[in-house]
Specification:
The structure holds two protein chains of two kinds. Chain A is mainly α. Chain A is 58% helix and 6% strand. Chain B has one domain: 2-Layer Sandwich (Beta Polymerase, domain 2). The chains are: A mainly alpha, B alpha+beta.
């Protein structure tokens, strides 16, 4: 996993990850367990004002105590209330924080892709010629433009359903 | 599948704009897409209805193992810009912002109304779709972008032909 992917799991800017790594005195390993721990670290830091190193230490303890039953974990005497200066007891909704990390993981595995490096090309070409040169079948586009929106959408539906059916059924071996 | 999803969202009074591959199909793209992408209104009433519908379809995260922590409620949507879900009705990606276009109000401004039978919904216009693909800048979108730009040029030529 790279920095960009790791940041996606935490739903933060890469800069935040780099700053957190610096606060923790070294480089982070960009792994799923590290993301879970850092997600809890971030929540403690944001909600209670606990400094990152202490929040990271607490996050490790919270994950060790979390029993995967969805119940929040209680931490005692950490952080400060608004202006009172008193430490507070807090329950941490670990399940929800982990759910957010897994939502990022789902996005990473299904739709995420790196941005193209460098500046986009500025040369203006005829888009139709460019598509033909790329190898796209323009007759398909012309045919689609001759169809109504309903026809186009139903055609897509039919193709998608076919693809799903084919994907679901195990292939049969036919004896010849 | 897509028609059923759209009909259910419209019937459920969810405010959304269709973006991504299905929007491309509406405009004439020949690419096969297996999921529907929508940009949704983040107003609490609409989000609550969207969440209710997704629960009814047993929505779960796509591409990850079953049984992992997953929360689908208004709070989860508020902190998550994109959710990639698999449901009983098919795969659906829900977004609160679109690259190159903006959030739901911007998406509405850059959309047009499409009617299919009794259902009426909004779809990102072809120029806005091209802008979003350009802004995303992902190599995997290259082919789709080339196709959409060609479609845009062909439609403009077609429109000029009709006027002339």
């Amino acid at each position: 996993m790279k920095l960009g992917e790791f940041s996606l799991l935490l739903n933060v800017e890469p800069k935040w990850v780099l700053n957190a790594a610096a606060a923790l005195g070294g480089s982070l390993r960009y792994t799923l367990p590290a993301a879970k721990r850092l997600a809890i670290t971030r929540a403690l830091n944001a909600a209670l004002g606990v400094p990152i190193p202490r929040a990271h230490e607490l996050a490790g303890q919270i994950l060790a105590r979390y029993k995967a039953d969805g119940l929040p974990v209680l931490i005692v005497g950490e952080g400060k209330t608004g202006g009172l200066g008193d430490a507070v007891d807090t329950t941490v909704d670990v399940y929800r924080i982990l759910a957010a990390v897994y939502t990022g993981l789902s996005r990473l595995r299904t739709t995420h892709a790196y941005r193209r490096r460098g500046r986009p090309g500025t040369a203006r070409r005829d888009p139709v010629r460019a598509a033909a040169e790329y190898g796209l079948d323009l007759t398909l586009l012309s045919a689609n433009l001759g169809r109504t929106t309903v026809e186009r959408l139903r055609q897509l539906d039919a193709m998608t359903n076919f693809r799903r059916r084919v994907g679901r059924k195990p292939l049969k071996t036919v004896a010849l | 599948m897509f028609e059923q999803i759209l009909a259910a969202l419209v019937a459920g009074n969810v405010r959304f704009v269709v973006v991504g591959g299905v929007a491309g199909t509406v405009h004439g793209s020949a690419r096969l897409t297996i999921d529907i992408d929508i940009c949704y209104d983040t107003a609490p009433d609409s989000v609550a209805r969207l969440v209710g519908i997704l629960h009814g379809w047993h929505a779960y995260l796509r591409g990850v193992e079953r049984g992992l922590p997953f929360v689908l409620d208004a709070r989860a949507l508020r902190i998550t810009p994109v959710m990639t879900l698999t449901t009983d009705m098919g795969d659906i990606d829900i977004l609160d912002i679109i690259a190159g276009v903006g959030a739901y109000p911007d998406a509405v401004a850059a959309s047009e109304v499409v009617t299919i039978g009794a259902i009426e919904f909004r779809v990102l216009t072809l120029p806005a779709l091209v802008a979003s693909k350009r802004a995303a800048g992902r190599p995997r979108d290259t082919e789709h972008l080339i196709e959409l730009e060609a479609l845009l040029a062909m439609r403009r030529t077609q429109a000029r032909g009709k006027r002339g």
